[in-house]
Design goal:
This protein has an eight-stranded mixed sheet with strand order 3-2-1-4-5-6-7-8, with helices on both faces. Strands 9, 10, 11, 12, 13 and 14 form a six-stranded antiparallel sheet that branches. It contains 16 helices and 14 strands. It is α/β, with parallel strands linked by helices and 470 residues long. It has three domains: 174 residues, 3-Layer(aba) Sandwich (Rossmann fold), CATH 3.40.50; 98 residues, N-(1-d-carboxylethyl)-l-norvaline Dehydrogenase, domain 2, CATH 1.10.1040.10; 135 residues, Thiol Ester Dehydrase, Chain A. The chain is 43% helix and 19% strand. It starts with a strand and ends with a helix. The longest helix is centred in the middle third of the chain and has 21 residues. Helix 4 links the parallel strand 4 and strand 5. Bound molecules: 1,4-dihydronicotinamide adenine dinucleotide (NAI) and the ligand C[N+](C)(C)CC(=O)CC(=O)[O-]. The ligand C[N+](C)(C)CC(=O)CC(=O)[O-] binds next to helix 7.
Length: 470
């Protein structure tokens, strides 16, 4: 049975949490008194349905059920996990958290708060306050894996572990912060840059567009893959971090920064920043900007995943935990969502990617009869010597496809495969492929008969395919 999450507050962040839980197979009950929340969450869910599956090589669990509740009590009563995401107002958070604890006697409650500490949140909550922890995410919650968890001290036994387990189960990477501090860790860093940027605009040193370029064309790219410390360690050359600190440390004391001050947000300064920001975004709507942001984030995360680095490594590890190796049934060899970067200037999946799908499908068959990575390490493999692909219909980014494969020939060194790729939503046949593979020794690089045990398993599987028993 699907696990149940309650999301209290359906704004930008609550919508993102709801989408991530749903797409990872949890049922979600949402409560937000605002009329606008339902439509807002539906829109975030649509964006997430398009983008999140592109990060995974296999299918995600079946989507959970979304229920919009009339009262907070109905939403949280049966929840296994509760995420509070109401506006950043301490009184409001106290009222809402107190209602949550009263309506559900067991479940842990994470708060999305950007700035309040667990002590701020727990004050006055009485018994059960130790079930509340800060679980601070980053926008868009359905794509960015980081969640800061704060409040180990004062938590009831098991609450921290329960929050960690629920959130890592939906693909988040919990960063447990040992001591509480206003605004936790990441937002302290972000706010420092934000303050400095506001001064630079106020003092006419740079425009909003120039500041964004300074980030995205330079150090922003570094930060996505190595963060601050490893990047600077490299910048210290062979002397490493110690040399870096010796060389650049004294500059920290120079009067470069205005961090201690916040520029007064006068009407004139707000108007100036807003006008520059409007000009910079060139009348593009928030929805257009979000689509661009999501497309770029998916591309970056997929590239990091291909290299096994940073957030990409976390996504691969999550996929392994979900046991989402491509292919569910005996004939199903690939099931996946088509990522944006597989499409070309014609607006559909490029021909080379059909080759990739069928190659992945063949690998799945090889795995199925024991000729997978271990067999390759033992010095044997199959080479594809012929491939015929028939393209039958267009395949678009975001579509979920399935490849089904049948063994058509298993004769000594020769292995014949026939694949059909179809769209999951309506079963439309998108492409077919026939392939001939030959068994080889990786030592001699020449064809040779398969090992006896492999040949026996292949014969068994081929017979089952021929008689339609699978
Ligand atoms: N927007 C951001 O970039 C981030 C925000 N956060 C945190 O997430 C929380 C929510 O922020 P946003 O989603 O940006 O705000 P938002 O303004 O988009 O959404 C807040 C939602 O709370 C609802 N709400 C108000 N009173 C409520 C009640 N009594 N019961 C249930 N819902 C109620 C509002 O109707 C609204 O839909 C805040 O604590 C914020 O600090 C965390 C990470 C990033
Ligand atoms: C602006 N903010 C403080 C609400 C931002 C965050 O908390 C995290 C984020 O997504 O940048």
């Amino acid at each position: 049975m699907a696990r149940k999450a309650a999301i209290v507050g359906g704004g930008v962040i609550g919508g993102g949490w709801a989408a991530r839980f749903l797409l990872m197979g949890w049922d979600v009950a949402l409560f937000d008194p605002s009329e606008a929340a339902r439509a807002r969450v539906a829109r975030v869910l649509e964006q997430a349905r398009y983008a999140l599956p592109m990060l995974y090589e296999g299918p995600l669990p079946p989507e959970g059920r979304l229920r919009v509740s009339e009262t907070l009590e109905q939403a949280v009563a049966e929840a296994d996990y509760i995420q509070e995401s109401v506006s950043e107002v301490l009184d409001l958070k106290h009222r809402v958290l107190s209602d949550i604890l009263a309506a559900n006697p067991d479940a842990p409650a994470g708060s999305s708060t950007s700035g309040f500490t667990p002590s701020d949140l727990r004050a006055g909550l009485g018994e059960g306050a130790g079930r509340v922890l800060v679980a601070h995410p980053f926008n868009p919650v359905y794509l960015l894996p980081l969640v800061e968890i704060v409040g180990r001290d004062g938590a009831v036994p098991g609450a921290l572990e329960a929050v960690e387990s629920a959130l890592s189960g939906i693909g988040m990477v919990p960063l447990v912060i040992p001591r509480e501090i206003d605004a936790h860790v990441a937002d302290r860093l972000l706010e420092a840059v934000w303050r400095e940027a506001l001064w630079l605009v106020r003092d006419d040193i740079a425009t909003t567009a120039q500041i964004d370029d300074a980030i995205r064309l330079g150090f922003g790219l570094r930060w996505a893959q190595m963060g601050l410390f490893e990047t600077y360690r490299i910048a210290g050359g062979d002397g490493g971090m110690a040399h870096f600190l010796a060389q650049f440390g004294p500059a920290l004391a120079w009067p470069w920064t205005k961090l201690v001050d916040v520029p007064e947000l006068t009407d004139a300064l707000v108007a100036k920043i807003a006008a520059q920001s409007d000009a910079q975004s060139d009348a593009r709507s928030i929805a257009e900007l979000e689509a661009e942001r999501d497309g770029n984030l998916v591309a970056i995360l997929r590239a990091l995943r291909a290299r096994g680095a940073a957030a990409g490594r976390a996504i691969a590890a999550h996929e392994e935990r979900l046991s989402l190796a491509p292919g569910g049934g005996a004939f199903t060899t690939v099931e996946r969502t088509i990522p944006l970067d597989w499409t070309d200037y014609n607006g559909h999946m490029n021909e080379s990617r059909y080759g990739q799908v069928f190659s992945d499908a063949s690998d799945r068959v090889l795995d199925a009869f024991g000729a997978g990575p271990d067999y390759v390490s033992a010095g044997f493999s199959y080479f594809t010597v012929e491939s015929t692909i028939r393209y039958l219909a267009e395949t678009l980014a975001g579509e979920r496809i399935r490849a089904e494969t049948r063994i058509t020939l298993a004769d000594g060194k020769k292995l014949g495969l026939s694949h059909v790729m179809s769209r999951v939503s309506d079963g439309a046949r998108l492409a077919e492929a026939d392939q001939l593979l030959v068994h080889v020794s990786l030592e001699t690089r020449r064809s040779c008969p398969p090992r006896e045990d492999i040949a026996a398993r292949l014969t068994e599987l081929a017979a089952a395919h021929a008689s339609d028993k699978v």
